[in-house]
Amino acid sequence: MGASLEELAGDERMLAAIQAGHGTPPRPSRVEQVKKFMLLPGDWLPAGDELTPKRKLRRRPIVDKYVTDTEAMYAR
Fold it and tell me: What span, in angstroms and rounded, lies between the C-alpha atoms of 31 and 13?
């Protein structure tokens, strides 16, 4: 059947497909363009660590939880 989120997050073809789709019209201004990104191997559920029950981002827990991943991404 389908691949798991963990498998998809590590699949180079998935990353390439997302990268290829970036920049399709309308094109964002230079400061709005995504320079680096990564796929996380999991799901963010409402009322979980990352989202409120109304699906708004919980920024501080996201920063705290993914600080190592973010630092590694910018260290490349």
Answer: 27
**pLDDT at position 58 over 50:** yes
Q: C-alpha distances in angstroms, 23 versus 30, 42, 52?
A: 10, 25, 30
Q: Which residues contact 44 (CB under 8 A, 6 or more apart)?
A: 50, 51
* pLDDT tens per residue, range 14-43: 888 888 876 566 777 888 888 888 888 889
Identify any residues that bridge with 51 across adjacent strands, giving them in sequence order.
57
Of 6, 69, 10, give the one whose Cα is nearest residue 36. Answer: 69
Q: What span, in angstroms and rounded, lies between the C-alpha atoms of 43 and 49?
A: 11
